[in-house]
Amino acid sequence: MRVLIVHYHLKPGGVTTVIRRQFSSLESSGFDVSILVGEPPEGEPGFPYTLEPALAYDQESQSSQDGPSGHSAREGGADDLRIGAIVGAVQANLGPPADDAIIHVHNPTIQKNSACLPALSVLAARGYSLVFHVHDLAEDWRPDVYCLGDYPQPATWVCINQRDVRNLKAAGAGEVHFLPNAAFSGKAGSGGPLAGSFGTGGPDAGDATGVRPEGDLILYPVRGIRRKNLGEAVLLSLYLPAGLALGITLPPNSPRDLPYYNGWKAAAGAFHAPIRFELGLSADFDELYRQARAVVSTSVKEGFGLSFLEPLSRGKVVLGRRLSAVVDDFEESGLRFPGLYQHITVPEGFFDPDTFLYRVKQVVMAAAGVYGLEGVNLAEAIALSLTTNPDFGRLDETAQAEAISRIAADTRARDEFIAANPFLATWWEPRGGPVTSDALSPWSEDSYGARLASLYQTVKKAGGGSPPDKAALLALYLNPEGFHGVGI
Questions:
Q1: Strand 50-51 relative to strand 245-250: parallel, antiparallel, unpaired?
Q2: Are 452 and 179 in contact (CB under 8 A)?
Q3: Cα 189 from chain centre
């Protein structure tokens, strides 16, 4: 079977990691696999690829977009030459349409390239089998990459979490399948504890290098984009005991995220917060993991949740914010995350509610306009849900900074915040037992390869299906509980 993997780029990140493991799994299973991208990697990716510049991000996507005023739905206007170039590159790599030929496209509905979806429509009309591998959905509060046009059909939709599977099916997509990412390379199932796993293991628990759980670093291995909720990481750092620090590995790449990131760097300094930034620019990633006592995540939105699994595969406990949309999938397969919290309650008086709710309504109205919706009722419903003791993770950066400023400056405010959230007093303490390789085997590269092969057999037999109804899909995601001030 011939498989062509298609994506906009091979920049470091989650999708590139998935592509690397997908290529490895398919090649070792005897598939004829090739890769087509619009932008080259920064270094040697470890696998062959073909470059087609017409697949690269639109220039508009690379410009600074400071909030909703920069949101745009790039419908139409796609250069016919670029559409033709993409179609031609696919045909040159894959050959003519055939039962054993599949185009596997990563994140095609995140419209970073206005020619991509029209090109896929052309290819579908010519009889090619399409697999749409959905890591994120623009309907999930991402108006800046939303496409107003119809999605290509027929196609097979593949999701990395069960929530998106359910929503796509509910919105009418005809062929939808669950394909969780591979969290680590290698074979599944030796049965023993992974090196470095610890929980209540006693004073000698530690990783294979001898680093102990009582190390001084709580690592947040992340690129600091907005939805990673860095304000909450700053907040958590204020409750660390003396001698511990929280460390963030990398700055964001995108101009849109950079001002928020730099704002938190400055605020953390002003608050004298024990948090370090950009550790990954001067230290090896593996070495940072070896130094870490535990790993934390404060993200408010994830497609798969690798940040919850990779630490376990490296023998580290995971602390921080629980995201039900992804953690539920892991727990249904037997994993447990006792170090996660669901909510951080913000008591009354820690930020200016009137100006915050005004900003929320403005953001929601702007987003609704991009989606082609009337947003008054949605804006009012979201504002109402944030009126009394909101979750810290749903605030925007301004309100978060106001709350942190009070906590940093006033011990009484600090104590009041702990009274509302008692777990904060010891949030940094590792909780949980050792994790075996058997427990992680559902997310091994072997398991991933087997799922991929099964998926392609299904595509070969069933073909694709109808796309989701876009209005129905929007209604499933645009709800009050899905809104986060730092996640849009």
A1: unpaired
A2: yes
A3: 27
Residues 10 and 131 placed together within one structural domain of the fold: yes
Domain count, the chain: 2
Based on the domain organization, do 48 and 121 belong to the same domain? Answer: yes
Backbone φ, ψ for residue 210 (5° rounding):
95, 0
The strand pairing partners of 321, in sequence order, are: 341
DSSP state of 469: P
Cβ–Cβ under 8 Å, residues 322 and 298: no
Residue 17 lies in a domain: yes
How does pLDDT run across 327-346, given as a tens digit for each residue? 999 999 999 999 999 999 99
pLDDT at 437 over 90: no
CA gap 323, 481 in Å, rounded = 12
- CA–centroid distance for 450 within its chain: 24
Give the mean pLDDT of 172-185. 92
- Positive or negative, the CA dihedral 338, 400, 280, 441 is positive
Q: Does 233 reside within a domain?
A: yes
In sequence order, which residues have a C-beta less than 8 Å from that of residue 198 and are 6 or more positions away?
A: 205, 206, 213, 315, 317, 430, 434
Identify whether residues 332 and 432 lie together within a single domain: yes
Evaluate the omega torsion of the peptide bond into residue 154 and state whether it is cis, within 30 degrees of 0.
yes
Q: Which two tokens stand for residue 432?
A: 């949980």
CA distance 436 to 441: 9
* CATH number for the domain that contains residue 291: 3.40.50.2000
pLDDT tops 90 at residue 186:
no
Residue 408 in tokens: 């940093």
Residues 187-239: tens digit of each pLDDT: 544 444 443 332 223 323 333 223 344 579 999 999 999 999 999 999 999 99
Cα–Cα distance, 484 to 206 (Å, whole number): 37
169 and 223 co-located in one domain: no
**Same domain as 450, residue 306:** no
Are 142 and 116 in contact by the 8 Å Cβ rule? The answer is no
Helices (H), 12-113: 14-28, 80-94
pLDDT tens for each residue of 135-164: 999 999 999 999 999 999 999 999 999 999
Same domain, 240 and 285: yes
Give residue 95's domain range: 2-182+444-482
Question: Can you say how many angstroms the Cα of residue 166 is from the centroid of all Cα atoms in its chain?
Answer: 18
Q: Is this structure's pTM higher than 0.90?
A: no
Q: How far apart are CA 306 and CA 330, in angstroms?
A: 11
